[in-house]
Design a protein that fits this description.
Number of helices: 10
Structural class: alpha+beta
Number of strands: 11
CATH architecture of the largest domain: 2-Layer Sandwich
CATH superfamily of the largest domain: Band 7 domain
CATH class of the largest domain: Alpha Beta
Distance between the termini: 214 Å
Radius of gyration: 59 Å
Order of helices and strands: HHEEEEEEEEHEEHHHHEHHH
CATH topology of the largest domain: Tetrahydropterin Synthase, Chain A
Largest sheet: 4 strands, antiparallel
Strand content: 15-25%
Number of domains: 3
Length: 338
């Protein structure tokens, strides 16, 4: 009975018909889907974005074919084409004569002696350190025209600085000529980069430190101190000169004006005296006795200004003075004597 039951169930199971799948077609369909997915991913890999501070440069099998402005673009995916996006607005920094170890704060630096030591035009040695700031002005030229770009820029910058320092004496390099050296170095470096079609623009060249070698720096400080003392003495002398000369000229001008005024005064006074004398002379000629008496009396007034004077006409015998003698006072004196 058990076997018959099992046989019946088996028969029912055999009557169930499975769908008729074609395994080969299924495998082919799966491969096609995978190929489509891979192709889609490969095609999408050709989409690239150029940021506002970048320039797109497209290479086809390694050769530059075109450039692209900022935005979303498409190129034939790798390995046919490749997109480079160098930053053309970013200002880069290059150090000559030193290296920054730790930006800090506080910042720490390491000196590079073989780069810093330079020969001036008057055959002195100075240690010169500069910072070169540059940016990309042409992406294709920057990417493809020069190998070892950073080392080449460093060598060109060092060469330009040595060329400029060699045209200036040590005093200019240490003191007054620094700004001129910066400008000349920037111009020479830009000329070198343009000659090699480097595709770079030199934004600025900044002298960080210019000083004599450590072995002789004290002697240079003594010389610089003596020059400062010399300039100080010259400035003091010039200040004294600028103060003394105008003051002396003013005093001389004042004396001239005073002399001219005194001259005018004396001339006018002399002319007045002469005119007065001529008037007196004319009056004298009209009445000689009266004029002579008046002159005599005026002279007595000037000579004896505080004395009481009595003028009396006397005779030849000396009479005529009795009326003017102080008889009253004399009598009083005699009475008082008694």
């Amino acid at each position: 009975m058990a076997d018959d039951k099992y046989d019946d169930e088996y028969e029912d199971y055999r009557e169930i018909r499975l769908p008729n799948f074609n395994l080969g077609k299924l495998q082919s369909l799966g491969k096609g889907v995978i190929v489509l997915i891979v192709a889609a991913i490969w095609a999408l890999s050709g989409i690239y974005i150029v940021n506002p501070d970048e320039q797109g440069v497209i290479r086809r099998f390694g050769k530059m074919t075109r450039t692209a402005p900022p935005g979303i673009h498409f190129h034939i995916p790798w390995p046919i084409e490749k997109a480079d996006t160098p930053k053309v607005t970013a200002v880069k920094r290059l150090e000559i004569g030193f290296r920054t170890i730790d930006p800090g704060p506080p910042a720490r630096y390491r000196k590079v002696s073989y780069e810093a030591a330079m020969l001036t035009g008057d055959e002195n040695i100075v240690d010169c350190e500069i910072i070169v700031q540059y940016k990309i002005k042409d992406g294709p030229s920057y990417l493809f025209n020069v190998r070892d770009r950073e080392d080449t820029i460093r060598s060109a910058s060092e060469s330009a600085l040595r060329h400029v320092i060699g045209k200036h004496n040590i005093d200019e390099a240490l003191t007054t000529g620094k700004s001129e050296i910066q400008v000349e170095t920037q111009e020479v470096l830009q000329g070198i980069l343009d000659k090699y079609d480097f595709g770079l623009l030199v934004v600025a060249v900044q002298l960080q430190d210019v000083h004599p070698p450590q072995d002789v720096i004290q002697a240079f400080k003594d010389v610089a101190s003596a020059k400062e003392d010399k300039n100080k003495a010259i400035n003091l002398a010039q200040g004294y000169q600028n103060d003394l000369i105008p003051r002396t000229r003013g005093q001389a001008e004042q004396m001239l004006r005073q002399a001219e005024g005194y001259s005018e005064e004396r001339i006018n006074k002399a002319q007045g005296d002469a005119e007065r004398f001529l008037k007196v002379l004319r009056e004298y000629r009209k009445a000689k006795q009266v004029t002579a008496r008046r002159l005599y009396l005026e002279t007595l007034e000037r000579v004896l200004p505080r004395i009481n004077k009595v003028i009396a006409k006397t005779g030849k015998d000396g009479t005529g003075l009795l009326g003017v003698l102080p008889l009253g006072s004399l009598s009083g004196v005699e009475k008082g004597g008694e």
